[in-house]
Amino acid sequence: MKKIRNAFTLAEVLITLGIIGVVAAMTMPSLIQKQKEKEYAAKLKKFSSVISQAINMAISQEGQIQDWGLTQYISSDGMSDEELAEANTSKDKFFEIIGKYLKVVEYCSYDSTCEKWDRHSLDGTLYASFSKRMVLADGTMILGVTILSPTCEEKHGTSEVLQNVCGEFFVDVNGKKRPNTIGKDVFIFYYTKYGVIPVGTKEETDKSFEALCNRKTSNINNGYGCAAWVIYNENMDYLHCDDLSWDGKTRCK
Fold first, then answer.
1. Percent of the chain at pLDDT above 70?
2. To bridge 101 with a disulfide, which of 54, 81, 196, 200 should be the other Cys (CB 3.0-4.6 Å)?
3. pLDDT in tens, 49-70
4. pLDDT average, residue stretch 239-245
5. Domain for residue 24, yes or no?
6. 3-state secondary structure the chain
């Protein structure tokens, strides 16, 4: 009887170990994903601080952004070759000015053939391609800039800062590495008359968190509204639940 009982005990142990192994295999990807999210959030917060200091220093030393002589650029659609060349010169000028106050290791100008790779929106839609523009010392990449209003009068929200938007730029916190997805490792900031602000704050009316940071929303711009959430709430829980809001839950659990 004792030998039989020992045999059953061994079988039970093996079964238990098997169950533990299955559970571990199931939870390991989740743990890795969570660690990645923490890593991206930390890098985004660091970049936010660095770029804010750079823009503020540039304004202090170079004058107000509306006096930098920038040319409006939203899209190349409908632009003549001359207009596009002027816009590209203007975007290079923006990077040249802020680059003085950043640790830049590489820059690809708009009149060059820059390295490109696919990018996706938060819901997985293939959006377009990223172009490497400015690479910082820690590997962070600023991918491109849009000049929405050379006079910094674009309105994107109810706060004074969002009433004076000059333009926006994309940042990839882990460079060319995947997932290359807006709202995961790629985020958007506004540069304004009063400095830099991440897109998607509570006061945002154009690219709100609720509308454009929702994994189930089918929208080519989905992910645009995530940057502020990551910086201020220090999580990316919007990837795991759909009932978060600035006035309600800020974590899934």
1. 90
2. 54
3. 999 999 999 999 999 999 999 9
4. 95
5. no
6. CHHHHHHHHHHHHHHHHHHHHHHHHHHHHHHHHHHHHHHHHHHHHHHHHHHHHHHHHHHHHHCCHHHCCCCCECCCCCCCHHHHHHHHHHHHHHHHHHHCCCCEEEECCCCCCCCEEEEECCCCCEEEEEECCEEECCCCEEEEEEECCCCCCECCECCCHHHCEEEEEEEECCCCCCCCEECCCEEEEEEECCEEEECCCCCECCCCHHHHCCCCCCCCCCCCCCHHHHHHHCCCHHHCCCCECCCCECCCC
Angstrom distance (rounded) from CA 85 to CA 213: 34
Strand partners, 106: 135
In b/e form, how buried is each residue of 102-141, taking b as 16+ CB within 10 angstroms? beeeebbebeeeeeeeebbbbbebebeebbbbbbbeeebb
Residue 3's CB: how many other CB atoms inside 10 A? 7
Separation of alpha carbons 47 and 70, rounded Å:
24
Please indicate, yes or no, if residue 78 is contained in any of the structural domains.
Answer: yes
Q: Tokens representing 82?
A: 């001359």
Residues 6+ apart with CB under 8 A from 132: 106, 108, 114, 115, 116, 141, 143, 176
128 occurs within a structural domain: yes
Domain that holds residue 41: 35-239
Task: Kindly report whether the global pTM for this prediction surpasses the value 0.85.
Answer: yes
Cross-strand bridge partners of residue 118 = 129
Widest CA span in the chain = 94
Whether 172 is in a domain gets the answer yes
Query: Phi first, then psi: what are they for 246, rounded to 5°?
Result: -65, -30
User: pLDDT-based confidence at 11, cuts 50/70/90?
Assistant: low
